[in-house]
Amino acid sequence: MNLKSARVILTGASGGIGSATALALAQSEAQLLLVDRQAEGLQQLANRLRAEGAQAHAYPADLTRGADRQAVIEHAGRVLGGIDLLINNAGLLHFNPFEEEEPQAIERLLNVNVVAPILLARAVLPLMQRQGRGRVVNIGSIFGSIGFPYFASYSASKFALRGFSEALRRELAGSGVGVTYIAPRATRTPLNRSALNRMNEALKVAMDPPERVAAAVVDAVRRDRDEVYLGWPESLFVRLNGLLPRLVDGALRRQHREMRSYATQG
């Protein structure tokens, strides 16, 4: 896809990966509708991009609400004149023992990470099919291919998003509408609790800056890529987990006690 003048909805736009992606898209001369629950940070981002010459509009919304999702689509039609690209980036992250997670928190995470992106894709799909082109990009995680202890709800949500992306891509083959699934590894964003950052440091887990993920998103869209897994050896572990999951079980078991010590903090 040529991003120059492409009409883009970007969710979770004021977060770490979201704001970096917004900047990368603006540098590619895309037209942006930035969506997030955080109205103040969202407006600041839009103002910054406009000051740099970009076409960027802020639209605060709670994407777990059907009325807000529909309002986003309608607003995109008004200010952008259509939709060429939907980037489902909004998400929540839980790092806890599963038995300590509140049911309401689990439900909200699944609504934000799974239900909202699926229903947003459903809303934009007829528009893209009528114009015979478009792309849906779903931001997943390495944890959507490898189930990690103390990330049970989060892993479940990203497994679901990966399966949805694969199924929809196959369904839309030949339609002109593509589906991309991007799986970052650990990334330095405000979503991370301090205990998670400390655990990653203790276990020597590599953490990417949000800008690396943003660059991968832009590159994937330009090249019409179906799937992108970021990081080495994480992308290798994805393959190993698919072929020889018991090997990965053993590796994670050796780290289990240390991981739990961080997961139970605060």
From TrEMBL:
One of its GO terms (molecular function) is oxidoreductase activity. Pfam families: adh_short. InterPro entries: KR_dom, NAD(P)-bd_dom_sf, Sc_DH/Rdtase_CS, SDR_fam. SMART domains: PKS_KR. GO terms for cellular component: membrane. Residues 6-185 form the Ketoreductase domain. Keywords: Oxidoreductase. Belongs to the short-chain dehydrogenases/reductases (SDR) family. PANTHER family: DEHYDROGENASE/REDUCTASE SDR FAMILY MEMBER 7B (PTHR44196), DEHYDROGENASE_REDUCTASE SDR FAMILY MEMBER 7B (PTHR44196:SF1). This is Short-chain dehydrogenase. It comes from Sulfurifustis variabilis.
